[in-house]
């Protein structure tokens, strides 16, 4: 949802000369700047490590709904894949800018009973310990998908239908996928180290 927007912004930006996208399935997108790498194992990038060499900016946007997969698989997606990807990025360029799509409520104490909060906290803490020269952690609230899609559970179906009300009555409780993607792109091309950005901070990046 968000990664596609970031990729579009990168491809459209004159400042970006090349975009490397690591995917499990070919997207069908063709662009002179785009180098798409089809790779199956997101817990081992050793066979494609040459594509990490010299990358200036890395965006990690992979995620899953909490109830969409078993808890052990959710932890792999939320924690293990982030850690493996971060290590590969640093090996390729110790000065790379790293942007992580995390979520509101991430628990830095790693003690929450809510697996989403606990695992997001673990992933964030790992990145912080790696001492990236420039690290941007995005904690959006409910992300409203600009493009239509089938929502996987009742909570997200309700949130989607209530979004027009939420954005007016509680502007800090939601953000569009377009706003989020553009903010993450902008953070990637800036030299400032934004650190942890909550929903209100993310929106300010687009001002």
Description:
The protein is α/β, with parallel strands linked by helices. It has one domain: NAD(P)-binding Rossmann-like Domain (Rossmann fold), CATH 3.40.50.720. It contains 6 helices and 8 strands. The chain has helices at residues 3-12, 71-92, 115-129, 154-169, 177-189, 199-205, and strands at 19-23, 34-38, 57-60, 97-101, 134-139, 142-144, 174-176, 195-198. Helix 2 links the parallel strand 3 and strand 4 (97-101). Helix 1 (3-12) crosses helix 5 (177-189). The radius of gyration is 17 Å and the shape is globular. The two termini are 22 Å apart. The relative contact order is 0.15.
| CATH homology group | NAD(P)-binding Rossmann-like Domain
| Number of separate domains | 1
Largest sheet: 4 strands, parallel
**Proportion of residues in extended strands:** 15-25%
Sequence of strands across the biggest β-sheet: 3-4-5-8
Structural class: alpha/beta
* Rg over CA atoms: 17 Å
- How many separate helices? 6
CATH class annotation: Alpha Beta
Number of strands: 8
CATH third-level topology: Rossmann fold
Q: Element order, helices and strands?
A: HEEEHEHEEHEHEH
What are its keywords?
Rossmann fold; alpha/beta; globular; four-stranded parallel beta sheet; 207 residues; 8 strands; 17% strand
């Amino acid at each position: 949802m968000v990664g596609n927007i970031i990729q579009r912004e990168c491809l459209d930006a004159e400042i970006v000369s090349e975009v490397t996208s690591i995917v499990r399935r070919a997207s069908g997108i063709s662009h002179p700047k785009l180098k798409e790498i089809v790779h199956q194992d997101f817990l081992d990038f050793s066979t494609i490590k040459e594509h990490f060499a010299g990358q200036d900016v890395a965006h990690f946007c992979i995620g899953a709904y909490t109830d969409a997969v078993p808890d052990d698989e959710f932890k792999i997606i939320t924690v293990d894949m982030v850690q493996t990807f971060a290590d590969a990025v640093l090996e390729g360029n110790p000065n790379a800018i790293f942007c992580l799509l995390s979520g509101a409520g991430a628990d830095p104490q790693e003690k929450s009973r809510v697996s989403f909060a606990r695992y997001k906290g673990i992933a964030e803490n790992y990145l912080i310990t790696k001492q990236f020269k420039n690290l941007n952690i995005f904690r959006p609230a409910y992300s409203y998908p600009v493009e239509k899609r089938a929502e996987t559970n009742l909570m997200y179906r309700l949130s989607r239908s209530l979004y027009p009300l939420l954005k007016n009555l509680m502007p800090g409780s939601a953000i569009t996928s377009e706003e989020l993607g553009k903010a993450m792109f902008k953070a990637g091309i800036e030299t400032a180290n934004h650190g942890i950005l909550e929903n209100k901070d993310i929106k300010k990046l687009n001002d």
